[in-house]
Amino acid sequence: MIAIDVEASGIGPDTHSIVSVGAIDMDQPSRQFYEECRVWEGAHINDEALAVNGFSKEEITDPGKQSEADLAHKFAAWAEASADRTLAGQNVSFDRDILEAAARRAGHTEWPFAHRTIDVHSLAWMHQVKRGLTPPVDPEKKRSALNLDAILLYCGIPEEPKPHNALTGAKCHAETISRLLYDKKLLPEFEQFEIPWLS
Fold first, then answer.
1. Cα Rg for the chain, rounded, in angstroms?
2. Alpha carbon of 148 to those of 1, 20, 38, 62, 112: distances in Å?
3. What is the pTM assigned to this prediction?
4. Number of domains comprising the chain
5. pLDDT value at position 154?
6. By residue range, what is the domain housing residue 161?
7. Residue 140: its pLDDT value, please?
8. What is the number of H-type helices and E-type strands within the chain?
9. CATH for 91
């Protein structure tokens, strides 16, 4: 399984561009991937997305940075060594879809990732229900309030630092998955934080 986090210029796979990708091979957590790129020519840039990921317009349009196509090729090549290339993360369908769109733009003929993914939100929801807890619901929007920060806190880990960084996000996803599925710590960055339901 590959814990993945993509930062982008917006949320539309076909209209926005990747700006960075972070990934952790869950079978070999020391195998990590982090790359940044410039947006593809004509990609939309959403100011709100930049506020979340901390990149400036100058950084994501820097002609000195590699192209989104080059990043997509590098990520696919890095993933080849993984025994299980199932993508996992919080709202991972976004990461999968924008990676796949980037791969199409890059001219991939054989994209190595399946449509099926593992979503951290679903794992955390199920974990809480199996423990007899009621997962939080946003009272105004009437939908799940289990965002990544809520899941991190549930797993005994501090909230993700802001602005978001793709590698930090991937590490948070990997650690929460390990704790939710196996009751085990995974990465040295989180070793000091105990797993609450085991205390």
1. 17
2. 19, 18, 26, 30, 26
3. 0.95
4. 1
5. 98
6. 2-198
7. 96
8. 7, 7
9. 3.30.420.10
